[in-house]
TrEMBL record:
It comes from the Bacteria. The keyword Transmembrane does not apply. Pfam families: GHL10 (PF02638). This is Family 10 glycosylhydrolase. PANTHER family: GLYCOSYL HYDROLASE DIGH. Keywords: Signal. SUPFAM superfamilies: (Trans)glycosidases. Residues 31-54 are annotated as: Disordered.
Length: 429
């Protein structure tokens, strides 16, 4: 997600609505024993799904920790205060009749649990590598489950820092021990996805949490190769020279690097804990139809071409249990119309067994910088009404937690009143 202090969607910094539009212009299984129950359908793969409202529906809330976007409210709070804030967010999720919390536990190649691979996260104490005196991820899992919530651990695979100064990282940070793994780009630091040793390391670091905790799912966001920055080049020449042989061009090699991360992580999660899900919330546009006839009738940035993320391909290959595209645009938006993208994604998942949950830009509701439709408290509710007409949409996720709490113009309250009359279970896979 491009987001930040009001930002463009879980993953950028303030440029908010205007920033997202600018970037654009350049992203249930209810298993039966006999047959589908009333109101369900069988797509021919033996799995029975219930579209729209039903006994199972994904109702998620993202909790971003990078730059203290959603939680903790600031770095350096006492452990007891951090815990109390986290509990309050879980209680808010219950109050809003949500059932899944997607907690960012590896925001900048650091960890919200005692990891043997990476330092403690800076967002906790203000000092990367400093022990916060408690186990945030362990507490989050236990307290979420106590409230009947699922906990999805959200990892960012390749972002190392939201600045470009390696000396500001913890002294024992893997990026400092292995400077050849790191690429500065756009004022930030990234691990190089083209290095096999990097791919293995980030998987090992994330799988440590899978082994230690009773997670319901592993969650990736939209950051693989970074979003394009005008006038700058992501310098992976050496990696391409070493590992790019046999590919028609660098773009194909980069896509293969990301594909390998997704496919390998999927297989390794299932090998460690088969019941742990794996989901990704990519940028909402795979490709535009003007580029590829299989693409959507949109005119924005393309995940396949600009981020080297073949999001449609991951679904078709069955490498993910769910896909939650970030459709952070209003109904009728000419560049990327919500009403165009929902049916496009609905068709992509058809027959695959992959769940479709729609990522919703709650943070835009009431944002003075957002277009006029987002000033209407009913816009978000209309999204859910529209999505209910598509059988493969099994729920929604809302970005982000602070916006669920603040609910500037009552858009979230309207969603709850119109669509969430009672608590329900999230879908299983």
């Amino acid at each position: 997600m491009r987001y930040g202090n009001g930002g463009v969607g879980r993953r950028g910094l303030v440029a908010a609505a205007a920033g997202l539009v600018a970037s654009l212009l350049v992203s249930g299984d209810a298993t039966g024993l006999a047959g589908p129950e009333p109101g369900e359908r069988d797509d021919g793969d033996g799995k029975h799904r219930r579209g729209g409202a039903g006994a199972e529906e994904f109702r998620g809330m993202w909790v971003a920790t990078v730059t203290n976007r959603d939680w903790p409210s600031r770095a350096g709070l006492p452990a007891a205060d951090q815990r109390a804030e986290l509990i309050a967010l879980l209680d808010q999720a219950v109050k809003r009749r949500l059932n899944v919390v997607i907690l960012q536990v590896r925001p900048t190649a650091d960890a919200l649990w005692p990891s043997p691979y990476e330092p403690w996260a800076q967002c906790l104490t203000g000092v990367q590598g400093k022990d916060p005196g408690w186990d945030p991820l362990g507490t989050a899992v236990a307290e979420a489950h106590r409230r009947g919530l699922h906990l999805h651990a959200w990892f960012n695979p390749y972002r190392v820092a939201t600045h470009a100064d390696p000396s500001r990282l913890a002294a024992d940070h893997p990026a400092r021990r292995n400077p050849d793994w790191v690429v500065p780009y756009g004022g930030k630091l990234y691990y190089n996805p083209g290095l096999p040793q990097v791919r293995r390391f980030v998987q090992d670091a994330m799988l440590d949490a899978v082994r230690r905790y009773d997670l319901d799912a592993v969650h990736f966001d939209d950051y693989f190769y970074p979003y394009p920055v005008a006038g700058q080049v992501f310098d992976d020449d050496a990696a391409y020279e070493a590992h790019g042989g046999g590919f028609p061009d660098r773009a194909a090699w980069r896509r293969d690097n990301v594909d390998r991360l997704v496919a390998e992580m999927s297989a390794r999660i299932k090998a460690v804990k088969p019941d742990v899900g794996f989901g990704i919330s990519p940028f909402g546009i795979w490709r535009n139809a003007t580029t590829d006839p299989r693409g959507s009738d949109t005119r924005g940035l393309q995940a396949y071409d600009d981020l080297y993320a073949d999001t449609r391909g991951w679904v078709k290959e069955g490498w993910v249990d769910y896909i939650a595209p970030q459709l952070y645009w209003h109904i009728g938006f000419g560049t990327a119309d919500y009403a165009t993208l929902v049916p496009w994604w609905d068709d992509v998942v058809r027959g695959t067994g992959v769940h479709l949950y729609v990522g919703e830009g709650l943070y835009r509701a009431g944002d003075p910088a957002a277009p006029a439709p987002w000033q209407d408290p009913a816009e978000l509710s209309r999204h859910l009404t529209l999505a209910r007409g598509h059988d493969h949409v099994l729920g929604h996720a809302f970005f982000g937690a602070r916006d669920v709490v603040a609910d500037r113009i009552g858009a979230m309250a309207r969603v709850v009143a119109d669509h969430y009359p009672t608590p329900v279970r999230p879908p299983g896979w």
